Protein 1
Amino acid sequence: MKKIPDSWILHQENWDGKPISFRVRLVPKEIIGSKNYAFGFRITWKFKESSKGFPENHICDLMEEFEELLDETFERDQHSLFVSVITHKGERDWVLYTPDPDQTYERIVKVLNQQKSVYHVEFEACPDSDWSEYVGILKNCNREP
């Protein structure tokens, strides 16, 4: 498979009276709904909100480190496609699409176990062969797939 472009958009608005931030990868149409990536995989980090509704700076730094680990773990071989980051109401969610949620989980845990920092994350996977979550995120950002 050819390399997926690394082009992203940023969308911010208020939702339920709180700020929400979307970073969304612009995945080519021919990849959206690919049966090669039939499972959605969500990684969630819950945090105490600052007065602006987002994580404090030191937590942002850790989240950035964590995101770099995700990128290094999956982007090189495109095992899983990292498609969005959503921050809202004390949570940051990284959304990926993968062919194998168990292997994705194992790869993340292996990398995390090698780190000095502690990352407070939870994992959730579900079938999503039509990429409905990603398409919904795009629509929230006033974009079409």
Protein 2
Amino acid sequence: MCPDCGPIDRDIQLETSVAAERAENIHVGAGSTKEGFVALRPCVAEVDPVAGTEQCCNILRHKVQTDPRLLTLRVDGSLYFVNVRYLEDYILNRVTGDTALQDVILMCSAVDKTDMSPLESLEVTKHRLHETGIHLNLSKVKAPVMCHLIRSDFLQERTGSVYLSEYDAFRALGSPDRSQATTFAERETHVE
């Protein structure tokens, strides 16, 4: 079963049964549908910059500037224990067999909430990508999510960088010398 987050009206449960989950779990319980469960997955789109601009858009809908060494994925939605495994699987399946790929950029502009599960999953994804010679980078990380990253080991053991914008990441990682953009690590970090 999934980890129990302990709603306000009851204590955290360390044990449960399939029958109890079917009766009470908001994700797989009574009244939930397969369609509703599938809707919990984050929407993930592959994006690249529109030629001549700093705007990154979906590669299926716009004429974009691509670089075979880079994969930029925009995550549209919060990340938490219910949906983060889908993202991990999506990334790992997408990079499999792509021999030109050097960097994955996870664009987090729509990720405004998270718990510790996505950080653990991103850590696993980062290490699995690193084993294949691919770096995991982040861009446009909102302050609440960045606070979680700073308090975790994710930034200390990183294989990539955290960029202020997706265009900065694309420009830096797509350039031969990779030194043209400002990364988050180059700025002062302050967490209250």
Protein 3
Amino acid sequence: MAENKLTIIGGVVSPLEKISNELLAFNNETKRYGLTLTPKQASELAVSQQETVSVVGMAELGIGASVLIIENFCSSPYMFEEDYYENLKKLTELFYVFHNSLPEFSDKELAKSMREFFDENGGSTDFLASDFVQSVKSQRGIMLVKKSIIAANKLSGKHYFRSLVAEGKKIGLISDETIEKIGRESFVLLKTQTETLTDGKTTSIKSETAEKLLSSVYYTVGLALKAEPSPEAAIEKINGESLTSIFKDGQKILLRKIGVCRLLFKRLEKSLFPTPNEFYRSTFIDGMNGFFKSYVPNLFADDKIITADYPLYVGLPDLDGVEFIEKYLDYVLCENAFLNCFSSNKVNALLSSLDENYKDIPLNIYGFIAIAALSSAVTEKPVRSLECDKKVFKDLINAELDEVIPALKKSGEIIVSELGLSDSVRKYFINTLPELISSILRSNELNAVEKTVLNLANNR
């Protein structure tokens, strides 16, 4: 693999060998904690760091985050020799992702905060990945705003800027003068975007194209405003800064999010569950590749440019543009990781028993297999076997609801334990458990348990 270097006049920045040597030098400090890197691991960590920097669209002009991570994490009671290298690799990757989301943090502040969160949550990198940024932003919101005036459910995920302005105007936080200023500055930005689109040849375009350009501008502005700790803080930004300045902030966030999505997509490519279902790969791999090739963030940032034919169990995110892709990939990675806990041959055999043409149908595989796993757990069969005691299950499902529902919830806990689900996958599974249980109960009400739930398992 070629080294990923930033070429400058007279040399290059941060060659991999220098990073690797720096990492090895830290063995003198970390060995007192029983933690050391081999030369091979140090070299691979340096390469991984450079790849991550490239994927998230950054340039590292120093030794990089891996050294900071070692400095801050080597004394953690949750760092052990057997997973030291893998944890450093994951933490370094997360550092750059978080740096994009929390640009106000210095490198040292970010590494220190990550270490504190890591220790507070039992040394879980999965929990760090899923909850750290939101936790930091929530804490900032608590410090800056004692009580939010604007309810989050009144703001649109897709049209955040427009809805925020409307709510701000309604409660008197945005004046008529500010509305007029937004209008004037919107026109200037639209004119600039039009010139970019037409290479300066004309400022006359079709009204629907102008509307799309303006929608993209407002979407990008919305990204910057969502990064504020509260709606009130976002309104302060609207009142205190020019729309052009906020738009530029949003563009930076937009590019960072694209980098994060590329990183998530890279993970998915490496771990994609093997299934003959044509919609699984065509949506997740071909569709995502198409998005990255066709997406034009500087002009049409709110475009999705992906046909999400494969249905997720939780439905599609109510978002646009790169936000949609980021959330969609988060959901996909959780479902994919859950499926990878089972034999692909067994999963494909079970789904074929339900419908021999399932490979040609856009059905959600996760939902069926999660239900099959529940039927295994509730009848005291090994979860990974996806087997079910037919008689026991039928007797249970026909009992009183105050017996059935607790038993199925308990089975959910058994699944989490037996499969050893990561924190992010565990949260996804637990969030979908009520609907999974409802699906089983609906099948029973329709006298379809035999055909659906039990047909998914190797009944004995």
